[in-house]
Each structure stands twice: as structure tokens, then as C-alpha cells.
Design a protein that fits this description.
Helix content is 46%, strand content 18%. By secondary structure, it is of the alpha+beta class. A hairpin with a 2-residue loop joins strand 9 and strand 10 (305-315). It folds into three domains: 5-79, Winged helix-like DNA-binding domain superfamily/Winged helix DNA-binding domain (Arc Repressor Mutant, subunit A), CATH 1.10.10; 87-128 and 230-343, Beta-Lactamase (2-Layer Sandwich); 131-228, Enolase-like, domain 1. The radius of gyration is 26 Å and the shape is elongated.
């Protein structure tokens, strides 16, 4: 579809006014507020053409129009002007990242918080699934007479804590000894390759530590196939109530119910594995549950290691340029933060 410059200006004015006010936009509003050098009658005729093209829709009998999902797509792809963050905004984001970020495993959670605070939409962040990671380090720590804490560090910087029940009390020295054996054998080992064959090898081995090794490996295997294999962080869940589209109790409840479905969120965001900013608008979403929303997603990498994926969910009446600018800036800044952490 090719729009002439006049129709592009009118569509831009309607999208940006509707994003700002949430009210249907009429030809008089466009003529008065946006100084396009056109009469209300000309604007009205072009609005009718834009509606016939499927770019605008009329929500009720008023003269006002609102963008359709197709209209938002045309705006984002061909009309929207890219934004960059101001120096003040960039400094604010940097302070929030650096002041609280102590290790890589906290990165995804912090990015989620920063994006939701800055954009005022809801953010969902997901860490990579364990079965895509390799073991970097394992440490066993006694908790009490019958419990041992497994601290697993993966090659993408994630830290997972798991508790196992022991059939007897083990000393710190023995657990340190077993930790060394685990690290010698499994450092760099893909977690997905910990399977029944590996367990059988340990079972057949004549070693004093196998009674400890077997429950540890069982626990790692179980973690691979549980919903806990990815961690999900939410930011700004209540922000959705700032938009009149979600003032209806039933609609708001449906949205909040979606945020409670961890497996759904992992499927929604965790499948993002490239560094592009992906934008899906309303009916373009593959899941019916969010066809009334827009979703902007990307993922963050350190070298060839996936650190996490993040999505911003909001109404289709979203400030796309601001969200994209924030996401793109954070992606670049995260690369610098990760580099500093890895050098420490």
C-alpha cells in the first residue's frame, strides 16, 4: 500500500493524538492541533479514505476515528520517527543498572524493572532455559542434618539454587570434596546431556561419594524438565490500570491472569533469541490471550551466550517510539555492563 504525503501526515497525527489522549480523533482536532495546512473538509475526506483502506476505524457514531492494528503497523514501519533518549534519561537508566547490578544473574530482573519504570508499561523478562546451558561451577553447601544446597552456575551467568534431601549428615569438608569431583567431571558439560546414561555410570562406579552424586544429578535432571528451568520476572504489573482500555474489571483480570501463567510467559518471551527489536501489534500476536495488546521484544547476549529475553506489553495505543528507543539503548548498555563484570 502506498500513501501520499498528505494521508501519511493525517495518519501520523491521528495515531500520535490517540496515543496521547485515548480519545477518538476528529478532522477538526487534526486541523487545529497539527497545522497541516489542510481544511477540516479535506482532512475528513482523507480520513474516510484511510478508513476504507483499513488503516482507521470508527469506534462508534461520533465523527472521531482511531487507528486499526493495520494503521499502527503502517505508522511504525513507514511513518514513525525514531527517537533517542535524552542525556538525562540515559544517565537515569545507567544509574539504575550500575547501582544495583552486582552479578550477571541479577541482570534480567534489573532490566525488567528499569524498562517498566521508564516506559510505564508492563515488562516480562525470561532467563534462558537450563537445557540450553553448560555447567560452569557446582558448589555443595550443608544446610542442616538432612539437607544440602546445590549452587549451580551456568556458562550464561545464571545462578540456580536447589535443595536436596540427604540420607545422612555430611561434613563441609566432604561436600567440598564432592564439589571438586563434580567440577572436574562436569565443568563445561551441557546440562541437557545429564541423563540416565550418566546416572548409570555413577551407579556402576565403586566410589564412596556416589550416594551423594546420584541425588544431585537426579535434581539437575528434574530441573531441566520443570517449569523452573526458566526464571520469569515481571515489572510494572499494575501499570496496565493507567490505561482506560483496561479499566473494565473483566479485561483487567484477564490481563493479570495471563501474567500469572509462567509457562505461557516463557513460551511468549523465551522464544525470542535474536538481538533485533520485534514489534507485534494486536491481532498480529500468535496468542489469542494478547491479541488486544502490543508486544515489543528483544534478547540480550554476551558474546555468543544468551543472557535473557524481555518483552514490553501494553495496549495497542502504545508510545512505540519511546519503548523502542529504551529497549535499543538498554541492549547496547547491557553489553558494556556485561563486559565490565566479566573483566572484574
Amino acid at each position: 500500500m502506498i500513501l501520499d504525503d498528505r494521508k501519511k501526515k493525517i495518519l501520523q497525527a491521528i495515531v500520535e493524538d490517540f496515543v496521547l489522549t485515548g480519545e477518538p480523533v476528529g478532522s477538526r482536532t487534526v486541523a487545529k492541533k497539527y497545522n497541516l495546512g489542510m481544511s477540516p473538509a479535506t482532512i475528513r475526506n482523507d480520513m474516510a479514505d484511510l478508513e476504507e483502506m483499513g488503516l482507521l476505524q470508527q469506534p462508534h457514531t461520533s465523527a472521531g476515528r482511531v487507528p486499526s492494528d493495520f494503521g499502527y503497523r503502517e505508522y511504525v514501519d513507514k511513518i514513525m520517527k525514531c527517537q533517542t533518549l535524552s542525556q538525562e534519561e540515559a544517565s537515569s537508566i545507567n544509574e539504575r543498572l550500575v547501582s544495583t547490578l552486582k552479578e550477571i544473574s541479577h541482570l534480567v530482573r534489573q532490566v525488567s524493572n528499569v524498562i517498566s519504570q521508564f516506559t510505564q508499561y508492563t515488562s516480562v523478562a525470561v532467563t534462558p532455559k537450563l537445557n540450553k546451558s553448560k555447567i560452569k561451577h557446582l558448589q555443595l553447601v550443608p544446610i542442616d542434618k538432612s539437607k544440602v544446597l546445590i549452587v549451580l552456575v551456568t556458562d550464561n551467568g545464571s545462578v540456580r539454587n536447589m535443595v536436596i534431601k540427604a540420607n545422612k549428615e555430611y561434613s563441609s569438608d566432604f561436600l567440598f570434596y564432592v564439589s571438586n569431583i563434580l567440577n572436574e567431571r562436569f565443568e563445561g558439560f551441557p546440562l541437557v546431556n545429564i541423563n540416565q546414561g550418566v546416572l548409570q555410570q555413577i551407579e556402576n562406579a565403586n566410589c564412596v561419594e556416589k550416594d551423594m552424586l546420584i541425588p544431585i544429578l537426579h535434581t539437575l535432571m528434574e530441573s531441566l524438565y520443570s517449569s523452573e528451568s526458566s526464571e520469569v520476572y515481571l515489572g510494572g504489573t499494575s501499570n496496565i490500570f493507567n490505561f482506560p482500555e483496561f479499566c473494565d474489571i473483566n479485561k483487567a483480570k484477564e490481563f493479570l491472569d495471563i501474567l500469572d501463567e509462567k509457562d505461557f510467559l516463557v513460551d511468549l518471551i523465551g522464544s525470542i533469541n535474536d538481538e533485533r527489536v520485534n514489534i507485534t501489534i494486536g491481532s498480529e500476536n500468535r496468542f489469542n490471550e494478547i491479541k488486544g495488546c502490543s508486544l515489543i521484544t528483544t534478547s540480550y547476549w554476551h558474546g555468543d551466550k544468551l543472557i535473557g529475553s524481555i518483552g514490553v506489553i501494553g495496549p495497542t495505543r502504545m508510545n512505540y517510539a519511546k519503548v523502542i528507543a529504551c529497549v535499543e539503548y538498554l541492549r547496547k548498555e547491557i553489553t558494556n555492563v556485561l563486559k565490565k563484570i566479566s573483566e572484574e
